[in-house]
Amino acid sequence: MNKSLISIALTAVMLTACSDNDTQKTTEATPAVQPAPVAKAELGTFGIDLSARNEAVKPGDDFFMYTSGTWYDNFEMPADKTRYGAFAVLAERSEDQVKAIIDDIASRENLTADEQLIADFYHAYMDTDTINKRGISPIQPVLDDINAVNSTDDLTKIFGQGWLTGAASPIGGGMWFNRLDPDQYELTIGAGGLGLPDRSYYLEDDERFITIRAAYLEHIATMLAYAGIKDGKQRAEAILALETQIAEGQWPREKRRDRDLTLNQLNRSELATTYPGFNWDLFFEQMGYQVPQLNIAQPDPVNAMIKLVNNSPINVWKDYLIFHTITNNAELLSDDIFNSNFAFFGKTLNGQEEPRPRWKRAVEQMSGTQSLGFAIGKVYVARYFPESSKQQMAELVENLRTALGQRIDGLDWMGKETKVNAHAKLAAFTPKIGYPDVWQEYDGLTLTKDNLVSNIRSLREFFQADSVANELKKTDRNRWGMTPQFVNAYYNSSFNEIVFPAAILQPPFFDPNADPAVNYGSIGAVIGHEMGHGFDDQGSKSDAHGIQRNWWTDEDRAAFEAKADMLAQQYSLYEPISGNFVNGRNSLGENIGDVGGLSMAYHAYKLSLNGKEAPIIDGTTGDQRFFMAWAQVWKEKRTEQSMLSQLRAGTHAPGRYRALAPRNHDAWYKAFDVKPGDKLYLPEDQRVRIW
């Protein structure tokens, strides 16, 4: 047995203290040495909030409500939230910690260069008096440039500057990794430019969407008025009609995530002849890229957008650009503009009753990878992330790797040839835990205390210049796509890496003092989920080196696709809102990650027990604690509007349905005595077992 599986790191450490006089001989009676108290789990007695359960609900009827129903029925959504759950709890903790860091920096003199950037940006963001006095004027030069547009080339120039100005564009481009050679960067081109969350908001005639479109029309007219446009309603109708045409030309989301369809590489010299009618030279000139290597992620939609650019009236495009420039910059402008924008995008579209406090919006703006997030993150890690957590996570990752390797060996649907390649990919997984080994540097970046929009532009220019400077260099594998204080995790198929920022390594996801079953069911399954992305319906199209290629036999791939289809069908039956179902195909990668991640984590948990039975704690078995921990990770409450947006625009199933992933695991049925007739019961031949 692998020692790392036996001596699992997620156990409490007991310490004893000795007196200074314990080596002296004495004839006096000495009291018994009292052991130091065992560190207590943050949630409950062993890492789960049992008070959240609704034991009147049968686990086999609704496992989400069984594990979290009392909480769900009694929790009142905060007015500044559209969803709330485990992720929100940790996000709020992270925000408070980052605020403490900023407050400390702002209270001191003789700051370092990075600290000065943080202090200046925060001061500029919080200086509402100056921001309100300036109104719309900080973006007036951009609006003037839009008003001066007289030709398609003028339009193209504005589109190409969208990364800097906030103007929208039906055609977008960004630097990413070459999927056929991950050591190279390439520019990926696709279609975009919508104001509503998804094309379905424009194209469906359900009463919900009709109501939203009517409110959107009013919102467009309101925002145009800030630019001095008086006949806003008529012009808003033309903008909505244009965006509807953009929506008609776009692919559905499930098609956009198909890596076979979205890999369409060509050289720069081929672009003008393959996608004619657009001034690509002028477009790229605004970004600064030399662009030797490209990938057109959405060929037909890009052609459709080119036709729209050439055939739609320039005046309508100008109004479209004015509207989106104002609304996309509203957070940086005066309160009247911000509040008007929030009234639609916050309240109407997502059900958020009031804006988040300004300091929280500042923290969010500062914490991104294209902002000061790593400058803050470096301090965050030093203050709030113990090195022991990184070591414990590293061991747990290896335990999950061992478990998945054993599960691959035991697959009855995969042949030996494909298993060799699967093992090679698993062995090549690179885990990144907590924080980067190489921190982002900000040399050359200058910010001010009194101009928020200028600071945002300076940050955008700084990171764009960095991207352009590295365009022709070997890809940087030290880069992180999330900052340490961000509550999430991800898998990068091009680098075959799994990444876990420090902020997610806290209860309920990870607690060194929790029962091992809880940690395996929470962070263990999250690790498994990210590993599972390397083997989901799309991640499985890349090999151990991150190269997109078919490493499967045809027979094995067909067997995998059949199982994936079953899972897509299973999730597509969930109906969170009447007439609106989970998109099982669009969320398939995440659902494979959930179901597979649970399998890996459960397997690793059993290995960690080394053949022994888990103890009964507070009347719960180890298996029950494992599955309840998973379900409580996905404890959440949403506004109905937010739920609709998630169903149409998100790649994840809502949390209450992610909590139901255990219904595909035999051990769950035994743990909770789930039987035929229970609502979640699946016959054995309908339980999806992929990894």
Describe what this molecule looks like in 3D.
GO terms for molecular function: metallopeptidase activity. Belongs to the peptidase M13 family. Keywords: Hydrolase, Metal-binding, Metalloprotease, Protease, Signal, Zinc. It is a single chain. With about 700 residues, the protein is an alpha/beta fold. Among the domains are: about 50-75 and about 385-435 and about 480-685, Collagenase (Catalytic Domain), CATH 3.40.390.10; about 165-330, Neutral endopeptidase, domain 2 (Orthogonal Bundle), CATH 1.10.1380.10. The chain has helices at about 5, 65-75, 85-105, 115-125, 130-135, 140-145, 150-160, 160-165, 200-205, 205-225, 230-250, 255, 270-275, 280-285, 300-310, 315-330, 335-350, 360-365, 375-385, 385-410, 415-430, 450-470, 515-535, 555-570, 590-610, 620-635, 640-650, 655-660, 665-670; strands at about 85, 170-180, 180-190, 265, 295, 430-435, 490, 495-500, 635-640. The strands form 3 sheets. A 4-stranded mixed sheet has the order 2-3-5-4. It has a 3-stranded mixed sheet with strand order 6-8-7, covered by helices on one side. Helix 10 (about 205-225) packs across helix 11 and helix 11 runs antiparallel to helix 15. The chain starts with a helix and ends in a 20-residue tail after the last helix.
